[in-house]
């Protein structure tokens, strides 16, 4: 099989879908790997390193014209025009973007969106949402620490004592857990909120305090259980009580890391303008949900501006929309391994391409085939 590795075209995208490590494995399995010149530059991987791993360096037409193309993000119109009908595309293709999927289907591609993989034990090694969210949670805290003009750890110095930073983490999925762990390593005091009761123990095990908002009705309890491990929209009654609890913590916080998301829906508003006003000057909000608020505006905070860092009411609000791309080398290394693990399912050893829809992971990731969008 000829496997192409395209250079990413989205603004600010520095990741790459294959690394010398994964190229070497694909070549060892008898595949030809065609890497677009400069594809690894943003992630500090040179063409020479790919060549040493057995890849052939080619141009965009060479990489995108392969039978199987690996990307990080969905190809733009120019890249799509270089792809061959009937070829296979594997990437983070945004399974909730119906128009984007329709474009892939119209181009005659068999497309797999890795974000659609189930969150099961078997799918863990190819779980791109986890590998990238982990990085986002880490980088969010590093950015906050960089902007914040005080220390994170409590320090006792000859010149006096410095208090530990108070960090509030909203949404404790993969990104939130890593944000807690990273802030903890830096010495902060941390409180965290989530709708799912199952995270309470995880929060405690990382040395943070869970902001408890008890469920008062069966409806609240049922919603909090979520579906497939994901959150569901909570009843307004619970959200109001959560907001009251969160507001108290946010007013005292130095740093807020907001990561709350509900798949396929707008990110919930958790930090109102009123709450931002209540924060101390110089505090920092990093809104990982930037660009995912109602109508694609805002994030967990309506004042967030996607792609920008702004100062509102004296508070720095970071709206970076692609945190993993800021840790491009490791983000690519982990993503490329996820891709390789997925390829094991559709390119079994010593066999050609095999799309087995009995395999729940393959079936879930398939978003376009035979010029049809296959995702419900
Ligand atoms: P996500 O990015 O979809 O959401 C981030 C967090 O926001 C979630 O914890 C969610 O509960 C929370 N949230 C939503 N609305 C909220 C609100 N109003 N207030 C506070 N928090 C809110 O989540 P994710 O990181 O993709 O993780 C989703 C689930 O998948 C988790 O249960 C995680 O443990 C699970 N998971 C399972 C596997 C596996 O078994 N293979 C792998 C990774 C993740």
Automatic annotation (TrEMBL):
GO terms for cellular component: plasma membrane. Residues 4-136 form the Alanine dehydrogenase/pyridine nucleotide transhydrogenase N-terminal domain. Residues 145-319 form the Alanine dehydrogenase/pyridine nucleotide transhydrogenase NAD(H)-binding domain. Its EC number is 7.1.1.1. Gene3D superfamilies: NAD(P)-binding Rossmann-like Domain. It catalyses: NAD(+) + NADPH + H(+)(in) = NADH + NADP(+) + H(+)(out). SUPFAM superfamilies: Formate/glycerate dehydrogenase catalytic domain-like, NAD(P)-binding Rossmann-fold domains. The transhydrogenation between NADH and NADP is coupled to respiration and ATP hydrolysis and functions as a proton pump across the membrane. Belongs to the AlaDH/PNT family. This is NAD(P) transhydrogenase subunit alpha part 1. It comes from Corticibacter populi.
